[in-house]
Amino acid sequence: MKYPHDAAPRRVLSRIGVLAALLIAFAFAAATPVAAAEEREAPADDGSVDLIERYGNAAQELMNQGMEYLGIRYRFGGNSPATGLDCSGLVQNVFRNALGLDLPRTAREMARLGDKVGLQDLKPGDLVFFNTMRRTFSHVGIYMGEGRFLHAPASGGRVRLDEIGERYWSQRFNGARRLLPDADAMLPR
């Protein structure tokens, strides 16, 4: 196929220009999150800093995503913010949207994942479990740091933060699980 006088070089230059523009756009998009992260204030030192530095902000992403659910109404069996969430539906949504992880549907199934963690060793992003229905692991929340956890409490309630040390919760605490890698396991030996 023959091209009119300058058509072939123009097409080639046009394609090179498009490719150059795409490469510049990709480079800018890749650099932008780093610049934005540098501009943010450093988070409070509640144990989350170590996790954030080591896991590409996974713990911070969980906390940020979780806070977006505050005030959503409780609905037994609910798994959609639009119609309401129960405790495990909340945890599923937060982990899926923050980290792309699909967790099992029930608190009991979630309690089988990850590594066991003691109350004194909790870090932001850990799952915390409670006996609220006269059976172990009947309620789940996400530890947010500073003694607080995010959860969808019960009928008539809304997603909220509560103190894990409150009498009601401390008496019903069943344990915790860490799904994010442990910092010590990631250190070079």
TrEMBL record:
Keywords: Hydrolase, Protease, Signal, Thiol protease. Residues 56-180 form the NlpC/P60 domain. Pfam families: NLPC_P60 (PF00877). Belongs to the peptidase C40 family. Residues 1-36 form the signal peptide. One of its GO terms (molecular function) is hydrolase activity. This is Glycoside hydrolase. PANTHER family: MUREIN DD-ENDOPEPTIDASE MEPH-RELATED (PTHR47053:SF1). Gene3D superfamilies: endopeptidase domain like (from Nostoc punctiforme).
